[in-house]
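re: the backbone from monday

yeah here it is again, tokenized this time
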């Protein structure tokens, strides 16, 4: 096994471990804001994962996919944050608990 293959396995393993911990935070996160941050962190790691694939396979098509995924992840984060903001404002108006 060459040195590059070992480094690739280590990088893929650490990226997968990061995605796993972000998924775990998403599942057990007590608040919606922590879940939003976990999804955003997963998206960043998946973009990194796709970029690593682009480097390993020497194919620029993967970089196009990573850019498109990044744009969609950004829009997803903005929409979800706006939803949470509106939800917090409506609970303040109705006098409900802000948790």
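seq for it, each position gets an aa:
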């Amino acid at each position: 096994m060459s040195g590059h293959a070992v480094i690739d396995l280590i990088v893929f393993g650490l990226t997968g471990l990061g995605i796993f911990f972000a998924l775990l935070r998403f599942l057990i996160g007590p608040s919606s804001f922590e879940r939003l941050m976990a999804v955003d962190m997963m998206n960043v790691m998946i973009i990194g994962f796709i970029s690593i694939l682009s480097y390993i396979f020497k194919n620029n098509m993967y970089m196009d996919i990573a850019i498109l995924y990044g744009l969609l992840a950004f829009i997803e984060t903005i929409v979800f944050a706006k939803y949470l903001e509106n939800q917090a404002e409506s609970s303040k108006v109705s006098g409900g608990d802000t948790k």
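The chain has one domain: 3-91. The mean pLDDT is 90.
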